[in-house]
Amino acid sequence: MTDTGVRIQLALLALAVVVALLAPVHRRALLSGLVVAGIGIAGVLTGWLALTGHAGRLTIPVALPFGPVTLSPAPLGGFFMLVIGAVGAVCAVYSVGYVHGPAASRTSWVALAVFLTAMQLVAASADVVAFLLAWELMALSSTVLVLTEHAHRATVRSATLWYAAMTQLSFFLVLLGFAVLSAEAGSTQFADLAASHVDSAASNLAFVALLLGFAAKAGIVPLHVWLPRAHPEAPSHVSALMSAAMVKLGVYGAVLVTTQLLVSASTWRSLLVLGVGTLSAVYGILQASVASDIKRLLAFSTTENIGLMFLAIGASSLLRPYGSTDVADTALVACLLLVMAHAAFKTTLFLGAGSILRATGERDLDLLGGLVSRMPVTSATFGIGALGAAALPLTAGFVAEWVLLQSLIHGGGTQNRILAITMPVAVGAVALTAGLALMTFVKAYGIAFLARPRSEGASQAQESPTSMRVGLVVAAASVLGLGLVPGLSVSVASRALGLGDAAAAGSGGIDLVGLGATLHPGPLLLLALVLVVPVVVVSVAAARRRPRRDVDLAWGSGGVRVSPRMQYTATSYAEPLSRIFDDSLRPERDVVVTHSSEARYLVERIQYRQRLSDVFESRLYLPVIGVIERVGAAAKNLQNGKINFYLAYSFVAFLVVLMVVTL
Amino acid sequence: MVLLLVQVVVMVALTPLLVGVMRQVRSRLEGRAGAGILQPWRDLRKLFAKEPLRAPGISWVQAAGPVVLVTSGLLLCALIPLVGTVASPLLTDDLFVVVGVLLVGTVALALVGLDAGSAFGGMGSSRHMTIAALVEPTVLVAVYALSVPIGSSALSRIVNARIEAPASVAAPVSLLAMVALAIAVMAETSRMPVDNPSTHLELTMVHEAMVLESSGRDLAWLELGSWLRLGALLGLIGTLTLPWGMAVEVAPVPALVGVVTLAVRLAVLGALLATLEVFLAKLRLFRVPELLAGSFVLALLAVTASYLTVTV
């Protein structure tokens, strides 16, 4: 059955290309958007078929210069197809109203369709060659999409360069890993690779290469540098697709490697995954909490969430050898729940950010404000997304983190000292992440939507068109839906991992088998509603007697609130935090005090400038780039334009070749 | 379910009195006469009778935030076993859920602070969220420590285990976790030494800065909500340290005993906290992380120590 689904997707891709190229300009967005949404929906259905065990194989006989490639989504791949398809469909609907300028061009629509299909094919691949081809197709098409607005902003070009370099590095590492693995197993089929696992040096090399390759795609520290550059510069529907869908394929790869291809009891591998996950989670959210560019903030928050997923994968493989199968399975379920939750709320948030950007022309939180009354739908949906990202109860994010925490606190055992130390530290890291995420998203929502507008653009903002609002509402509804009926998502995640339906309980709640922990958001919501009724009744009764009175200014400590610039901004909001984490963030601050010309004790103006850089970028990447540039500059000396030098080069090269051949 | 509603009603009646007791103890220790323990109730009555002011640019958050805060406070009172430990099968009294509900209130308060668009509200909100972010690790690891001996993070099971084995209350692991939790509760409810609840000095305000622009019933809800949070969290500490007299079945007499012991526990803890506050100086804002890091280390020690004791 799934082969039909994949065929339909490929047919829809062809249709999307035709529509994008031939449709008249004023209809292009609508028609292309609908066809791309169709690709997404076909992906959802195919994924569902794969999850429910309707397997099917689609073998494409020739993929020159390689042999036949096989597309046959397994349940795990089907799960990712489902998530990616859903994100793709929502983003496509949203983009109908959103695209303008270069994002509405033929190239962009074709690239979008190819990108979405390529992501689905990665998850559908059943052999290494298909996987790598789809992976590279996904990398190339997404690069085209990131480059969309290159003519308008110079920063797009530099961002694309970073993105292209990192995504090709990821491809190279994945290729290396699979090459080693395939050579070891003598086959390129995943099924055969899975059968031949040994703890040899070659498999260690393959593990490290694959992990790094997938980590680079997923945005794990220290390979995350492309995220905070590419996400802000790409059009928002593309950022949403990249952040909510594409990086998940890195997680897919990591799950595939640790649970199927290279299953191993070795502790260092698990600790490595757990360690990079923890580091990414904490570092990502720390950077997000001090960021004031809203899309940069969201990009770093993606690093955080992916970090939590890797943490869950690492915890699961760490626990499994010690016989805690139930707990290890729960940790993996938590990873997939995080995937779903993150897909839901990050789609909402990036699309919401796109809405803000379109309405105000601003991405900088310090220049926003007061949008809650001007953009009610965007503000409500962004708010729900922010609640999800902050992992507050009744949202998808809460459920996922709850399951993760349950698996961690039941994992720390007496059997092993490593567990007794790593699990509490992991809980602490998850908790710190959750706390900082709370602060980050209160900042993002409160500064962008509440208070008074801080710029001209923000004060003239208008609500987005219908198609964008539909996309936003669907995405936000999924954040709440997955949170209120978590039994459904848990059963989907369990199917993907081949665990059966064990963890779901009645009334849509969760009952974690073997852990004795239950969660029922529905009754909790009911109780909250029961309790809120008297409060609202008292409020309404009081409002009847004493309605609100409009005043020019409330207290403001007795001062007239002269300028909106005197409000707290995102930068000032995060100032205490950036001071507390001074050592890890290393912000550069300049304070320039200009004195009055008449008396130097009078201050005329104070200028405060703060620049936050990425420690990994300045300490790790820039030195390497510097070395490469120096080598490049030195190599330039070889080309001095004199013909006799070139003749000498070819003569030397010829001699070397002869020597090599004769050896 | 009945017990939950009893808890909520009792807590609504008791928490303003708790705050009254705390203020009265403080006044007496400072050599003042004090306003009497009923003053918080009188304040509430006064505030409900006044109309709230609406400044230009203020949104629905100003009215909805206080309602959310008070609801999360009520929900806390319902979920935490205060009067009795009879858990309803569908309502999870899981500690992580309790923390989540607590944070909903924290967020509502922070958004109210930002909504007014004045520098003070933003300042309070920023400090409040920074402290909340740093408290979170302590709280969750302390929860973890409490859950280790019985393998569950459900509060009613933790408390039942303590009632059955009273010696476990005084075990070193439990004491470490309780100290960590107590520090976290002080920070979360804006008490000394993290925040001075009676200050209006701009450099030191946290909680007061956020509610500065609210008036009338909005302010009344904010006050009641904060008191409920304080009452529920003090009640939680009380339940965990002195778990005697809790109703273990749903019947009038045990419930009555439970209510009386709850009142006694709250009064004792409140008086203790107020006494402590008189002798404590408020910490500089940037020394607060040190305190919280200390409490986190205590909580972490509690977890690792609990694994060690289980092995032995």
Q: What is the first-to-last residue Cα distance of chain A?
A: 56 Å
Largest interface: A-B, 87 and 87 residues
Number of domains of chain B: 1
Compute the average pLDDT of chain A: 88
**Structural class given helices, strands, pairing of chain A?**
mainly alpha
What is the distance, rounded to the nearest whole angstrom, between the alpha carbons of the first and last residues of chain B? 40 Å
The SS-based structural class of chain B is: mainly alpha
> Can you tell me the overall shape of chain A?
globular
What can you tell me about this protein's structure?
The complex is a heterodimer of chains A (663) and B (312). Chain A has 26 helices and 7 strands. With 663 residues, chain A is mostly helical. Chain A has a two-stranded antiparallel ribbon. In chain A, strands 3-4 form a two-stranded antiparallel sheet. The longest helix of chain A is centred in the middle third of the chain and has 36 residues, at 325-360. Chain B is an all-alpha fold and 312 residues long. Chain B has one domain (2-311). In chain B, helix 2 runs antiparallel to helix 9 (216-241), helix 3 runs parallel beside helix 9 (216-241) and helix 5 (119-147) packs parallel to helix 11 (288-311). Chain B is globular and about 55 Å long. The model of chain B has no long low-confidence stretch (mean pLDDT 87). At the A-B interface, helix 16, helix 17, strand 4, helix 21 and strand 5 of A face strand 1, helix 3, helix 4, helix 5 and helix 9 of B.
List its salient traits:
heterodimer; A: 663 residues; mainly alpha; two-stranded antiparallel sheet; 7 strands; globular; B: 312 residues; 11 helices; 69% helix
Helix-strand layout with pairing:
The complex is a heterodimer of chains A (663) and B (312).
Chain A: H1 2-22, H2 25-51, E1 58-60, E2 69-71, H3 75-98, H4 106-124, H5 128-146, H6 154-185, H7 190-195, H8 201-218, H9 227-233, H10 236-261, H11 267-290, H12 294-319, H13 325-360, H14 371-374, H15 376-389, H16 396-411, H17 417-449, H18 456-459, H19 466-484, H20 486-496, E3 510-512, E4 517-519, H21 521-545, E5 549-550, H22 570-573, H23 575-580, H24 582-585, E6 588-595, E7 603-611, H25 615-636, H26 643-662
Antiparallel strand pairs in A: 1-2, 3-4, 6-7
Chain B: H1 2-29, H2 39-48, E1 53-54, H3 61-79, H4 95-115, H5 119-147, H6 155-164, H7 172-188, H8 207-210, H9 216-241, H10 252-279, H11 288-311
Helix pairs in contact in B: 1-3, 1-9, 1-10, 2-9, 3-4, 3-9, 4-5, 5-7, 5-11, 7-9, 7-11, 9-10
